[in-house]
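Let us work through a complete example step by step.
Step 1: write down the sequence.
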Amino acid sequence: MNTPLIRPELVTSPEGPFLAAAELTQRESRATASHSHARGQLMGALSGLVSVGVNRQHWVVPAIHAIWIPPHCEHSVRSHGPFSGWSVFIAEQRCAELPGEPRAIRTTSLLRAAVRRAASWDGTQLDTQRSRIAEVILDELAASQAESLGLPAPEDARLLRITDALVRDLSDSRRLEQWAEWAGLSPRTLSRKFSAETGLSFAQWRAQARLLRALELVADGVSVTTIALELGYDNVSAFIDMFRRATGTTPGRYGTAEPGLTGDGRDE
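Step 2: predict the structure and record it as tokens.
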């Protein structure tokens, strides 16, 4: 059974402070069925990794990222292994200037410090000092850039057969032409419909699926060699190169570098 992340009335009631936050650590995995609420939610992991299902997409949220879920947006949540994370709930009327669509963001030191302070509050109305900290959280979210940590699902049944088969075995390296023959459509139709329904080419979708699975496995402490083999890479170096291009660091260092800092220690 999941421990409530935050007092339910702080999420469901229009009364109370315009921003409420909480942190939670639990040893067992955490899973929450699809639901929605009037408040927007910014969710992040302090350790481990969280998967979020939202708007026909699968989002992966590693410890140095967070996902923004606008008000009334259906979403489900699952952690991989022990969970330590945080959430910020923002009153609907204060979400007008925030992103209108779900997005993954890379957290900054300032955002994480402000959230930690907000998580210590008792849920009463915000005084002047607390309001300033809450406004910092809103400003950081409003200024954030979207990160590519989502995987859109196609609607066509034949494309879904392909994506489902790929997710079950990401080491499958069949070419687009071979997948098209397997699913019973022409390569040209597969290519056109894949781009139209997901916004990604077939190759881009498979690469994104492999990256997101790699993030899950890294968070679970799986060895780099095992991950490379599971994802179908010919060698470990090829996998590490892919991971570095996508995330800016190696699998071994992922999640340990201070987010949002340049080499000279300044915020980007």
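Step 3: interpret the result. The chain has two domains: 9-142, 153-247.
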